[in-house]
Amino acid sequence: MKQIYENYTAEDQNVWKILFDRQFPNLPEAATGEFMTGLKKVNFTAEKIPNFEETNEILRGLTGWEIYAVPGIVEDDLFFDLMANKKFPATTWVRKMSQLDYLEEPDMFHDVFAHIPLLANQAFVDFLQAISKFGQEWIEDPWAIHLLSRIYWFTIEFGLIRENGELKIYGAGVLSSSGETKYSLGNEPEHHEYDVDHILDTTYRKDKMQDRYFIIDSYEQLYNSIPEIKEKIELRLKEKAAAVN
User: Fold this and answer.
1) Tens digit of each residue's pLDDT (9 = 90 or more) over 121-140
2) What is the domain partition of the chain in residue ranges?
3) Residues with Cβ < 8 Å from 169, sequence gap 6 or more?
4) How far apart are CA 22 and CA 133, in angstroms?
């Protein structure tokens, strides 16, 4: 499908502006510097919903990635296939004014505002592409995909990073939520160092704020953990197969 920009209504543009203006003031202190830099690079502002064609021209020049318009949540095989080929699936629809504070399915404020700026960081997209290729490889094994989803969840969606001795947010699930932005950096949730084994052993919930977050020291650390992720998931697959037999 394609983003039909002229179909956005005045309410759509206003909802984007409200969400942007509500969240943006929280970010200079809370978000990773790479997100703030990326936000400027892709020219996202409160004044208008991003035009995918314009954004894609910028992204292709930075890291070779692009936004790929989808109607909503897509199946795992398409999800991994797209990202293995440097295409980030993002919906084109914007929530209604009545849905400002709660939404069951992510809209483009989450998909685009929160995810796309970090696609300007090379180590980050290299990590994203690598785990997506694992998804392609293991697509017929539900347990492998579930384990891989834990990695994705606690990094791409809800990851924290340490910058200049301070905790910052890089996970899109946090960056798109003003409530979780403040909560994630506070004293209530647990904070753990990035550890592949720990993440693979950790379940998560989609219907509430997280009770724990994992902290990386750099995006290079994330990318350099790719061989370990593959090794540890394959080990768990072998252990499960041995237990069944």
Assistant:
1) 999 999 999 999 999 999 99
2) 5-244
3) 30, 31, 32, 35, 159, 160, 161, 175, 181, 184, 185
4) 36
Where residue 141 falls among pLDDT bands split at 50, 70, 90?
Answer: very high
- How far is Cα 110 from Cα 99, in angstroms, rounded to an integer? 13
pLDDT more than 70, % of the chain: 99
Q: How many CB atoms lie within 10 A of CB 7?
A: 9
Residues 89/132, Cβ–Cβ less than 8 Å = no
User: What pTM was computed for the model?
Assistant: 0.94
- CA nearest neighbour of 185 among 206, 158, 208, 204: 158
Catalogue the long-range contacts made by 143-149 (C-beta closer than 8 Å, 24 or more residues apart): 143/236, 143/237, 143/240, 144/233, 144/237, 145/76, 147/200, 147/233, 147/236, 148/229, 148/233
> What is the per-residue pLDDT for 245?
66
Q: How far apart are CA 35 and CA 42, in angstroms?
A: 10
- Region at 5 (left for phi over 0; alpha for psi -120 to 50; beta for the rest): alpha
How many residues belong to the chain? 245
Residue 154: pLDDT over 70: yes
Q: What is the DSSP string of 112-129?
A: IIITGGGGG-HHHHHHHH
CATH number of the structural domain 5-244:
1.10.800.10
Average pLDDT, rounded, for the chain: 95
Pair of tokens at residue 6: 């002229």
- The β-bridge partners of 70 are 91
Contacts of 156 (CB under 8 A, 6+ apart): 115, 128, 171, 172
